[in-house]
Amino acid sequence: MSTTKNQFHDKLAHCLCPPGDGVYTVNTAKERKDALRNKLYGQTENVDFLWKESLNNLADSEHKAVILGISSDCGGGILRGANWGPLFLRSALIDQQPQVTAFDLGDVRVIPHLLHDKYLNQATISNCQKALYQNPESEYYVSPLSITEDVCNGFYQHYPDKGIFGIGGDHSISYPLTKAYLKAKRDAGKRTAIIHFDAHTDLLVERLGIDLCFGSWCTHILEYLPAPHHLIQFGIRSSGKPKQHWESTFGVKQHWADEIMTRGAHAVANEVIAQLKADQVDELYVSFDIDALDEEFASATGTPEGNGLTPQHALDILVALADEFPITGADMMEIAPFTDSSLVGQSSSETTLREGAKISAFLIAAMNK
Predict the structure, then answer these.
(1) Domain boundaries in the chain?
(2) Taking the model in full, what pTM does it have?
(3) Could you say which architecture CATH assigns to the domain 5-368?
(4) What's the Cα-to-Cα distance from 314 to each of 203, 269, 331, rounded to whole Å?
(5) What is the pLDDT of residues 85-115, one digit of tens each?
């Protein structure tokens, strides 16, 4: 639905909230939230007013990269906690990567046990609209995936020269982020590709009867790509089926972790660049699940996996791709800071956030170019 810019900004003020506030809490992590508010606004009071005022500066912002946090892990796996990713990763970026800046749109307002509005009956939707918007007949969506897609559709309508850097949350969130991106670029006549880093294929049709979740989002964005092989996956290693099954069934292109470690990141990147040029791709979206990295570097996540990529593998591939193609959308998913599944050495949360911040900083800088 087409909206005016004023209507879109009104939607932002209703459906989003200040950065780091996407997880609704009473006292949990209050000190961490206050610390982020101080870093962003220099104070902890009246932040809602300051954030809403900042939205008026979006059009004039010099930054092409716009951060959107989606603090949801309802579509995730067994080990939860990725809903804290937007709060913690923002702080890590400010502290560890201060040279990289972006416009911060804030967080999607999340009711933590909801996923997508299509799974809800009208009575539930009305109750949630009353809770979120004080209006049981509101025009706005109530579930994080639905709100994210709606907000991103409006964003690309009014700011086609900017791009969303999404911070999750579990990987189901990449469904609305990439769907809105791909539709907008298609309407603009741009040929796109999704560069997907992950230990898992995320190519299930459904999981336990739910079609939009962390393990299936890739399957449901294929129709919006110019061709299925414009989804290119890196770092796969945990799969119940071999590479040939996924490539032949869905038409995607995969480069598993062992291939990258054997052949080298640069050789694989050069092959992908040749493919993208042959396909006449104009722009790239990068979706990065932190578990693409080996559990030595990223164990603070819902499904840490061994035998994975090093951060340098990932950066070598991203640098090579960014030298040849503009990265105009991206996300960082599945950082779960309160989990600590490592048994030795440095805190897994500290290590995971550091490596996630490095890769996020590169992606934001690439988008700002």
Answers:
(1) 5-368
(2) 0.96
(3) 3-Layer(aba) Sandwich (3.40)
(4) 21, 10, 14
(5) 999 999 999 999 999 999 999 999 999 999 9
